[in-house]
Request: fold
Amino acid sequence: MARIAQRVQNLPPYLFVEISRRIAEQREKGVRVISFGIGDPDLPTHPHILEALHDHTDVPANHRYPETEGLPELRQAIAAWMQQRFEVNLDPANEIVPLIGAKEGIANTALCFIDPGDIALVPDPAYPVYAIGTMFAGGESHYLPLTAENDWLPDLEAVPADIRERARVLWINYPNNPTGATAEIEFFQRAAQFGLDHDIAVLHDNAYCDVTYDDYQAPAYLQAADASAAGIEYFSLSKTFNMTGWRIGWACGNAEMVDALLRVKSNIDSGIPQAIQQMAIAALRDEDDQSTIAIAANNRILQNRRDKVVAALEAIGLEALHPRASLYVWAKIPEGQSSADFAARLIEEQGVVVTPGNGYGPSGEGYIRLSLTLPDNEVDEGVNRIAAFTSS
Ligand SMILES: Cc1ncc(COP(=O)(O)O)c(C=O)c1O
Reply:
């Protein structure tokens, strides 16, 4: 029997595999499970974007290998969008690299910066791919706890000098998964300065920048002074345009870092199917404001769900964050229970799935995450069941 490499053996079970197993178990018992688990929009891709796909499937050039660097029109559409949305100027020729979803770019970025023994500064809790990518590259993650006391922002000053010396990257993510916390440009400025002071690449994952509520506008890391000198930023069409299934996003900013990522990627993948790039072009160009209208309508639906979920959690005595952005509600469970036990009890007693916070890192213990990506009727059913749950 061939030996499976240590890096694979070292992998924790992917968070949602365990949850899927529990869902299957309940379904077998005939329970109609309501899942606030994975953050995958239930709403369809906006029609004008699908139209662009239909218009480009018959084009023979789109049946061949795409270029890793993407269509020039896509990079131009991204640059124009970054200018319009954030007033950030980017050179489409060398400051943008399209990605097969932000996840792919995040994982491959570790190969650009991390040599064996190097350290990545990783928020805790966080989207798991920052730490997993680091491990694949032979590096180690040093966790920066995100807590209510520090407004869910990492305390960069608290990073010990010996760790700082060995650190090559700092991952940050606002609007944040899993906490729903947001950050302002002033924090991004401090992060950029920290990166420049210590030769650490600042990597900001902005996958949720347009999933926002209550008129909140999320900033970009690249709006901060010197941000581009220190790092790059990741964007995704997945959540903004209900496009998780199409796999497209981009990284942009520092030209040297973008080039490193492009070089890694060109040795691993062969780019994004071109008809899908055309979907992204239609989404970002937004010629008839159809994207703008669709995003606003989407966010109204999500905001309504957020309000219902937060109210239900508070009604059973949980302290929930009231997020201004992201697809998630992060809630503190009563003292004396583990996140995993609480989540297991909720699924067993009410058939309601939530994600245990410790799946996002040790500081997530004591919390659960609820995603807002299930149809309204299921949200209503779910909040009724939560209301019937004895939390302590
Ligand atoms: C913080 C964060 N970054 C990136 C991604 C992945 O986005 P994509 O679908 O573009 O790969 C997710 C998906 O859940 C996420 O939560």
